[in-house]
Amino acid sequence: MASITLEGLRKTYAGNVQAVKGVDLAVEDGEFVVLVGPSGCGKSTLLRMVAGLETISEGTLKIGDRVVNTLEPAERDIAMVFQNYALYPHMTVYQNLAYGLKNRGFKKPVIEERVQKAAKMLEIEDFLSRKPRNLSGGQRQRVAMGRALVREPAAFLFDEPLSNLDAKLRVQMRVEIRKLQRRLKTTSLYVTHDQLEAMTLGDRLVVLNGGLIEQVGTPMEIYARP
Ligand code: ADP
Ligand code: ADP
């Protein structure tokens, strides 16, 4: 795992829309940081810049010691978990997990080993032959996480991964992600507008407002103020 460092990060969209106005943030190696804030505050833009899905207008982005500003997403050694699962419906769970590794040219024995390891970790090893449509919402979410896990990246990015789930499942998955985090000590940057999710998951919370950091602290420091 590796740290993620943002120095003076800015994003100005066409029409002079300043979505992110200069953000300094260090996600330490093994730390789980949650970005929270109201709709339109720039969370998604910030995460997408880290992922490489959006260009950086100004500032420096590092993964570990490496400046990755201009690297393609695939070269950044980070994996992103999306909210809509992004699973391939015509492929089995195994094939969904193996796909990204296969594309990156990993050899079959390595792929098998990593898929089995991730499947075991996520307790989906009994569903490897199923198609996504024959899984429950929670199982699908775990497969989506599995696709990130098999890559064994330096860091994980989460873009509101639980927002499409019903309330009960959302609580379950929150616990699931927290457990996984404790076990794997993953460096994670997690975006949500859900305060409860932020409190449960974050080692540290970053409150974003109008493209700027408003507050940084532990869940207790942010939400338990008198
Ligand atoms: P959040 O994820 O917190 O809801 P966003 O990062 O999506 O916030 O948006 C931040 C601001 O940038 C908003 O004002 C939004 O309208 C604007 N914005 C987002 N994407 C684009 C885009 N592709 N072009 C122009 N403006 C955008
Ligand atoms: P391809 O797309 O290359 O044909 P397959 O999906 O047929 O790949 O599977 C390739 C290998 O992955 C198989 O030979 C098998 O070892 C392993 N595999 C595929 N599905 C499963 C599964 N459900 N459980 C365990 N291993 C599997």
Automatic annotation (TrEMBL):
Residues of the whole record sequence present: 1 to 226 of 350
GO molecular function: ABC-type transporter activity; ATP binding; ATP hydrolysis activity
Protein name per Swiss-Prot or TrEMBL: Carbohydrate ABC transporter ATP-binding protein (CUT1 family)
Keyword field contains Transport: yes
GO cellular component: ATP-binding cassette (ABC) transporter complex, substrate-binding subunit-containing
Domain ABC transporter residue range list: 4-226
Keywords: ATP-binding, Cell inner membrane, Cell membrane, Membrane, Nucleotide-binding, Sugar transport, Translocase, Transport
UniProt keyword Nucleotide-binding, yes or no: yes
Organism: Vreelandella songnenensis
One Gene Ontology biological process: glycerophosphodiester transmembrane transport
